Amino acid sequence: MAHGLAWLVKALKESAAQRVVRLVRFGALLMLGSLAGCGGGGSEPSGTQPSATMSLEAPTWLNSGVHVMSLGDSLTEGWPSTYGGYRFELYRRFIAAKLPVNFVGSLTNTSTGLPDPNHEGHGGWTSYDLRDGRPNALDAGNVRNWLAAEHPEVILLLAGTNDVFYTQGDETIAANLLALIDRIRELAPNAELFVGSTLPLRDPQLSGRVTRFNALVQQGLVTRMQLDARLHSVATHDAVSVDDLADDGVHLRPEGAGNAKLADAWFGAIRSTLERLNAR
Asked: Is the pTM of this model over 0.90?
């Protein structure tokens, strides 16, 4: 994605309020070649698509297992790929390990070639949006609706990238993500919740903010994990690098190894839990 023009086209598609926030906050960055937020949906891909169509053939036993919800923004959706990003790579690992897993969620977009396309990756949404719903898209629901409908046994939460693009302080956006975590624990206390740390960004200013944001969230997570054996922290930030990012400096390149690295981080964290739950 070209830095300046494509970012502006994406901004124009947003609501007026969102556009004002982004333009005011990052006008200076745009002059220097700014980054796009963690969007998705109808935007054009920012990276080159793989030359061959990616697809998987799932064994008949796979979708009969543990219900797993991938929850977050466009990094969970898999944008700018068409095949589901890390979800595609994670699905491959489930097959190789012979672990029955059923992806659940209200969305199926950006999942070409993935036999089990369901997810809750909402492009452009912040932690606050995921918790309470997006004001201009209330019919898309919120975490309360999605959990009530799907009853996941394992939840993979990767959020926060969109939060750092707004003018709120680090403590405020960290509190928003922790509030989302608390809402999930309230609504699904028996689910195993795995919280990934927010991925790196190429822009140095934003990268520094992600580091501070992750540290604040981790502090809150450690306190909560001491009281909740079903809450887990996953160092997804450390699994990838800026070299794995697409031209927009935000998303993972579809043709690169970043999605596989991210899938490895998730799989290493959740494998023993999946094996235990499947053995019931």
From this structure: no
